[in-house]
């Protein structure tokens, strides 16, 4: 991926979690739900010309093409917000993976002997 494409949303990251940092988890989740519902109304349930999508409608390629960028942005937001949420939920947790002080020299010898056979 080119650095230009990778940096497409770099300037938006702080905005995507700003309310979370200011107002806490409940307000944050409320905002995410509202944004998702609005995106569904704006993109999923309307044809390109603004008319409502009805059951059985055949969606033209233009419908899909016009939704690609909003979908990419939504996925990027989701990744950033999931990261924020996990960091928030596990902020006071200690890591679960720690190196165990074990002398592996005997196992290493057995392994090298097995390969020598």
Automatic annotation (TrEMBL):
One Pfam family assigned to this protein is S1-P1_nuclease
Q: What SUPFAM superfamilies is this protein classified in?
A: Phospholipase C/P1 nuclease
InterPro entries referenced in this protein's UniProt entry, alphabetically: PLipase_C/P1_nuclease_dom_sf (IPR008947), S1/P1nuclease (IPR003154)
In terms of superkingdom, the source organism counts as Eukaryota
KW Transport (keyword) present: no
Please provide, alphabetically and separated by semicolons, the GO molecular function terms listed in this UniProt record: endonuclease activity; hydrolase activity, acting on ester bonds; metal ion binding; nucleic acid binding
List this protein's GO terms for biological process: DNA catabolic process
- Which keywords fit this entry according to its UniProt record? Disulfide bond, Endonuclease, Glycoprotein, Hydrolase, Metal-binding, Nuclease
Q: Which PANTHER family match?
A: ENDONUCLEASE 4
Q: Which family does it belong to?
A: Belongs to the nuclease type I family.
Protein name as it appears in the record: Uncharacterized protein
Organism, by scientific name, is: Perkinsus olseni
Q: Which taxonomic lineage is given here?
A: Eukaryota, Sar, Alveolata, Perkinsozoa, Perkinsea
